Amino acid sequence: xxxxxxxxxxxxxxxxxxxxxxxxxxxxxxxxxxxxxxxxxxxxxxxxxxxxxxxxxxxxxxxxxxxxxxxxxxxxxxxxxxxxxxxxxxxxxxxxxxxxxxxxxxxxxxxxxxxxxxxxxxxxxxxxxxxxxxxxxxxxxxxxxxxxxxxxxxxxxxxxxxxxxxxxxxxxxxxxxxxxxxxxxxxxxxxxxxxxxxxxxxxxxxxxxxxxxxxxxxxxxxxxxxxxxxxxxxxxxxxxxxxxxxxxxxxxxxxxxxxxxxxxxxxxxxxxxxxxxxxxxxxxxxxxxxxxxxxxxxxxxxxxxxxxxxxxxxxxxxxxxxxxxxxxxxxxxxxxxxxxxxxxxxxxxxxxxxxxxxxxxxxxxxxxxxxxxxxxxxxxxxxxxxxxxxxxxxxxxxxxxxxxxxxxxxxxxxxxxxxx
Length: 420
Prior knowledge:
By secondary structure, the chain is of the alpha/beta class. The protein contains 15 helices and twelve strands.
């Protein structure tokens, strides 16, 4: 039975390594020694894998030592693929991971990528790196596959093994081998794509579709706000039709939905096509932070508050609820915009890591906000701990006539001053 190496032990790699580790020998590899030490102690800071699940993966070994990869014959790369400040794909982690694999690649080995990329990236970017470092020939000495990750951070229902897995390979025989490999752990079944490019394209449009649907909801919320109509009431009414899709307005961050469309548009522009609809959706969603801040400021002014030096409590800083992931959180856009208005901002989050928030965003999280202190409270990310609070509990943080903004509409209608 082939020994597998999973390169990158984040939100994607660790659940995958754990699932495989229950059935076959696996090396979970990461260059972050602190992460390796924590995992060896049975601790996963992402909260995606429980200590019990880690213990059940009896054949999984964690390492940051390249030598431990030498006897692996299948390498699965699950490193992040971010964008830079200009919304251009940053393939540096993918290239570095490919260089790492190339150093231990042997004849007959298979390298499978799960990282989200644009169609063609595996064979145009990654494979040449593998060839250069290893000195081996693609589809003669070694082979490649692509099986896009579908991890939804914080989702305890849709796990890696219970989500249909798209697979592909660089030759028909390798495609079948890759598919069989994943079929061994994926209870939901697999879908074998005809080529690596098809599998890459399938992944990148999954999140692009969601991005556009949320952009539509965000634009509708702006229209309905001007009409004096509650967006969530409208969506509840429209949702009684059997084929109306249940999307809601909100901030679009995270490592997938707010990033993946830029990979597709980058490739489209490289081949001479300028995407209109995809980029329009991105503009709407990227502009939601300033819009939310402006709506809160208007509500504060109407309530008689002075904006300059007003104290605002932002509840929730991760990119989504019930998840500690701070990557590409768009709550920071709201915070920065409110600061530009002259407000004093406190941010609290019961799930986020304080050191990471300070390192990545310069935000010092307040763990226990004081009551009767704030001119406004923005419930930005409704972690279950916050969603279970009554409006009276949330208003306890406010001064008299303070403004409560329920961004995602988790409170009953009328209990907050405003919501998207």
